[in-house]
Amino acid sequence: MKSIELQETIKKLKAGDRLALSKFLTDIEISENPMELVLKLYNSIERTTPIIGITGFPGSGKSSLINSFIKLLRIKDKKIGVIAVDPSSLISGGSLLGDRTRMEQHASDDKVFIRSLSSGGELGGLSHKSFLLSLVMATFDFDFIFVETVGTGQSETDITKLADCSILTLAPGLGDSIQAMKGGILEVVDLILVNKSDKPEHSQTFQQLKSIIDTAQFPDSKNIKIMATNVKDRNENTKIINYIENFVEKRMKLVKKKESSVWFIRQLLYEKIEKSLSKEKILGRLSEESFNERGIGELVKRIITDLK
User: Fold this and answer.
1) 187 near 219, Cβ under 8 Å?
2) Mean of pLDDT over the chain
3) Where along the chain do its domains lie?
4) What value, to the nearest 5°, has the Cα angle with vertex 29 and ends 188 and 164?
5) Cα separation of 146 and 150, whole Å?
6) Rounded to whole angstroms, how far apart are CA atoms 96 and 89?
């Protein structure tokens, strides 16, 4: 994207042009240097919109809950952006599920913007591109951005580095899986939603989680809230929305912005290192080497020297 074209796009983004936003997101998805585009955007627009990350096991009802939250926030005339990260097809690399279909009733609402994209097969439930797209959308005139991750389980902690409020959704009947989560994602989320409260196993799951949270010693005196709901429980979902609004109002401070900025810088470094490693000079060095376990460490040191 040429500099003049980028500046024109940034003007349109500031003016709330949805078409310009959609086009810019596409440019990032197909760009060989997506970080550069986002960096130039951030030199002109400050991120002001809170990002709400929602993760959890498949089938825990993440998309349905987001759909319920959108309804309640639209009653308040809030503008909502959604990024739904789906599993990737091993063949095409594209999105498999298309969570957008669960929120199709909002498709004609010009104050709701939904974007589905694939995870790119990356662990952590959040792809490099989806991280960048989330940051771009957070500079737009939305009131809230919801980012729904793939939902592969406890390893999905990347979202907590991006989101101003990280939510873990769980369904009843998890049994021993809850115990396994004690040392993982439970330590980094801000809010746990036990969904499908209309199911008989719900109470046992809720009490198990509450017991774990009450007895666990989380870092930095972290206070994790646990709430129960289902997609039809409007009163409880209203309470959840109110809690989220109050939470992010306090959280949108320098510390959280600094945390996401550090993650941003890490991604830029990874991208530049990966491109450097693809240079013919280094590839030629690798092809000439005879690999063995003892020599790999020394080889890495020489490559680092070449990168300087």
Assistant:
1) yes
2) 76
3) 1-45, 47-260, 264-307
4) 25
5) 13
6) 6
Q: How far apart are CA 266 and CA 269, in angstroms?
A: 5
**What sign does the CA torsion over 56, 59, 63, 68 have?**
negative
What's the whole-number mean pLDDT along residues 96-115?
70
With the C-alpha atoms ordered 184, 188, 192, 195, is the resulting torsion angle positive or negative? negative
Task: Find the helix packing angle between 18-30 and 128-137, rounded to 10°.
Answer: 160
* CATH number for the domain whose boundaries are 47-260: 3.40.50.300
Q: Which residues contact 246 (CB under 8 A, 6 or more apart)?
A: none
Residue labelled with tokens 């666990």:
216
pLDDT of residue 77: 95
Instruction: Name beta bridge partners: 305.
Output: none
Contact (CB, 8 A) for 85 and 148: yes
- Residue 102, pLDDT score: 59
Is pTM beyond 0.85 here? no
